[in-house]
Design brief:
27 helices, eight-stranded parallel sheet, Lambda Exonuclease, Chain A, about 775 residues, alpha/beta, Fumarase C, Chain B, domain 1, Rossmann fold
């Protein structure tokens, strides 16, 4: 049975014949609209013998495959029995400098349309013309050639030969890959407790096109338990591409290690890891243009030739390999990684490559449906990340700063002044009502109109200016992003006008991201959402769109409960008003907990301010203690040095003070004696702010407001922080929770089932006694 593939003429031409450089300098968005008008003007200038926007297609039986090539030609002109294919291209270039060699891709498209028209209509020759329309002047220039069907056939099949080469490479690779997958056994000698159950649910979810919600505690081996069955499903033809999505770099590295581990056991699979442009750029500045960057200059000239060699040499495209390839072939590492996503079986990257409306991989998600699988690791993080992705804000300060750089009296100056005046009027309203914010359930139409007028004028200014005004360009992009987000505005949004140190902010705030998350998931065959803290699971089912038939699993920790002790001190009030009053109690708990056994400890606090209060009290009263504190603006190097302090060889007790929800409370592995105890001060509740109150009020319609806005996000942070202690079956450790609210059922009921045997303690002496008894068991 022959296979059938489909490709558009444009994609065929652009893939095979791509040439030139990466150039991400300013390109007018208005010109795109003018381009559409230009097409319409040219098409409307002809009579009844001109057919506009004509669809053409033909199926070519090519060796062992049927290739359907299709497209829509701008126009077909028939006069005196002569047929002319008309390709219309809009430009801002001087028409006098445009000749036949201006852009070979334009002729290639026209010739492909011409060939299909010839064989569909059984004619021997045809004219192809390229009509260049200058959007600034309204003038046109027509270049025209006649071709025989034989000429067009040779040209067309030269493209198809090249395309078929890549298709054959893909099929040959898939055959090898699927054979290796068929022979692949689970990469460990035996399944851990809960591991097989998780793998089975994941596999069934994929083959049945369902979602899977999995709470998989530390130790289950969730990475291999989700990747292995998904790869097995791929080998059986149930999914063509796997997206392994994470929120943190360290989790991406675990995914890479797991894939490589299976490769060592015979798996042949290709994978690419996507890394943010600013992290991989080889230049001093991210100026992606051929005049500045040698990796951008001639990028497309070198790309296809390099890819032919690359796919023969590599199948693991992690950050290090991409950096090496980039240097070897002089290719932009970031753009190369994006190109490799089309080849790779597995794409490992941040959530934003699938969910962010501004940067998602459009090449995969423009179609209505596909058979991709999303593996969403640490799935508890996606809610707030999506809320951020689909929100946007503009600051009054931005407009004021840009205004200083503009010439008074110009239309652009007057436009930005109108926007500033509008924002000042908003500020005046806030002063009258004596509030620092206004919440509205609709878009600010006047504000949007002003922004759109400014964008039009800004477009014209930037297209004519020889010098780059960086502040203006950044504001232009910020407004453009704001307008993009406004297209999603509906009942899940509010408009928040807020006053702070930057003046008035206008925020399009995505209160409930469930709709946008679910819409993207619908474009994939299956979504597997998993985390050690995907709880309460009904909360995530609500947000991510659980439907009848979807799978869910709530696994218990595979670790021996005798290896840890969990204590709750529910007699200390850590609420904001009581923090200084109860600081002595907190210090007493900390000192007795950490002096029960020499070792490395972390104390987690709900805020930097609270952490600093306790830190200063501890060091003033206990100068002999080695305490180091997380800073709010640590570099990657400083974070690594901080973690290096948790050394198994430490001869004294070391205590790290960290913030709940911060870098060190999630995704780090301090195994063995690198960390033997964790204290969590508070219930992790986010600080009260207007955004959290908006979420609360929104979900209060379903009597879930306080839970969705404060309690659930807080408890998830607590569980994540507690999970830093005991990372392997051999680890032993102590966990202490401090807050009066742990005595209330609405909090206690959210703790994992395996924590129900926790010990209630009242004061430091009881903590020390319990800890000593625990540690003495292992001496």
């Amino acid at each position: 049975m022959k296979s059938e593939i489909k490709i558009s003429i444009r994609n065929l031409v652009e893939f095979v014949m791509r040439r030139g450089s990466i150039d991400n300098r300013y390109v007018s968005s208005i010109k795109a609209l003018e381009g559409i008008r230009g097409h319409q003007k040219v098409q409307g200038s002809y009579g009844d013998n001109y057919m506009a926007e004509v669809s053409l297609s033909h199926i070519f039986t090519y060796e062992d495959v049927d290739i359907k090539v299709e497209g829509r030609v701008d126009g077909i002109l028939i006069e005196d029995e002569k047929v002319t294919i008309d390709e219309i291209k809009t430009t801002t270039r001087d028409l006098l400098i445009i000749d036949e060699d201006f852009n070979p891709l334009h002729w290639a498209q026209g010739k492909c349309y011409g060939y299909i028209y010839c064989i569909e209509n059984k004619i021997d020759n045809i004219y192809v013309q390229i009509t260049y329309y200058n959007v600034d002047t309204g003038y046109t220039r027509i270049l025209k050639n006649q071709y025989s069907v034989d000429e067009l056939e040779r040209f067309f099949f030269s493209l198809l030969d090249e395309y078929k080469y890549w298709y054959d490479e893909k099929i040959n690779w898939q055959d090898k890959r699927n054979k290796s997958i068929s022979n692949l056994q689970f990469p460990f000698k035996e399944y851990r407790k809960g591991q097989r159950e998780l793998a089975v649910r994941v596999y069934k979810s994929i083959i049945n096109s369902k979602k899977c919600f999995a709470r998989a505690p530390t130790g289950i081996g969730k990475t291999v338990s989700t990747l292995f069955p998904t790869i097995k499903a791929m080998g059986e033809g149930h999914t063509s591409k796997i997206f392994y999505l994470t929120a943190k770099t360290i989790t991406r590295e675990v995914a890479e290690d797991t894939i490589n581990f299976m490769r060592k056991r015979g798996l042949m699979i290709s994978s690419v890891t996507l890394t943010a442009k600013e992290k991989v750029c080889k230049m001093d500045e991210m100026n992606c243009n051929p005049e500045y960057c040698s990796y951008a200059n001639g990028y497309f000239d070198r790309l296809n030739g390099a890819l032919k060699k690359i796919i023969k040499e590599y199948n693991n495209f992690d950050r290090k390999i991409i950096d090496e390839i980039s240097e070897k072939y002089k290719l932009c590492p970031f753009e190369l990684s994006l190109e490799l996503t089309s080849i790779a079986d597995i794409i490992v990257g941040d959530y934003n490559y699938v969910f962010d409306p501004r940067v998602y991989l459009k090449r995969f998600f423009e179609e209505k449906e596909n058979d991709y699988t999303l593996l969403i690791d640490e799935g508890h993080n996606l809610v707030d990340r999506a809320r951020s992705m689909y929100s946007s804000q503009l600051y009054e300060e931005q407009f004021i700063e840009v205004k200083k750089s503009l010439k008074k009296g110009t239309r652009l100056f007057n436009s930005i002044k109108e926007i500033i005046d509008y924002l000042k009027d908003k500020g005046s309203v806030l002063k009258v009502i004596d509030e620092n914010y206004i919440i509205e359930n609709e878009e600010l139409k006047e504000f949007h109109k002003l922004l759109e007028e400014f964008i039009i004028l800004c477009d014209y200014y930037l297209s004519k200016s020889s010098e780059v005004n960086k502040e203006l360009l950044q504001l232009y992009f910020d407004i453009h992003n704001f307008i993009v987000i406004s297209q999603y505005y509906d009942e899940h949004y509010v408009t928040l006008s807020k006053y702070d140190f930057k003046g008035i902010n206008i925020i399009l705030y995505c209160v409930d991201p469930s709709k946008v998350i679910q819409e993207r998931m619908k474009k994939c065959k299956s979504s597997i959402i998993f985390s050690a803290t995907l709880m309460p699971i009904n909360y995530f089912k609500d947000i991510y769109g659980y439907k009848e038939g979807d799978y869910s699993i709530n696994l218990q920790s595979p670790f021996n409960i005798d290896n840890r002790i969990i204590m709750i001190g529910d007699n200390v009030d850590t609420t904001y008003k009581k923090r200084r009053e109860t600081s002595s109690q907190i210090v007493d708990y900390i000192m007795n907990f950490t002096t029960s056994k020499e070792g490395n400890y972390i104390v987690f606090f709900p805020s930097y301010e609270y952490m600093k209060i306790i830190y200063e009290k501890v060091i003033s009263e206990h100068k002999e203690i080695n305490i180091f504190m997380q800073k709010s603006d640590m570099t990657e190097e400083e974070k690594e040095k901080f973690l290096d302090l948790f050394n198994e060889e430490n001869k004294k007790t070391y205590i790290g003070f960290c913030v709940l929800g911060g870098h060190f409370s999630e995704g780090i592995d301090l195994v063995g004696d690198k960390l033997i105890g964790v204290i969590i001060v508070g219930v992790g509740m986010p600080q009260i702010c207007i955004e959290r109150e908006i979420i609360k009020n929104y979900f209060d319609k379903e009597s879930k407001g306080f839970y969705y806005s404060y309690i659930y996000p807080g408890i998830i942070k607590v569980l994540q922080a507690a999970g830093r202690c005991i990372r392997t079956e051999e680890d032993r450790g102590a966990i202490l929770l401090l807050d009066t609210r742990y005595s209330k059922n609405q909090y206690r009921s959210l703790l994992p089932e395996e924590w129900l045997s926790c010990i209630k303690v009242r004061g430091g002496n009881e903590v020390k006694k319990c800890c000593k008894e625990f540690w003495n068991k292992w001496c």
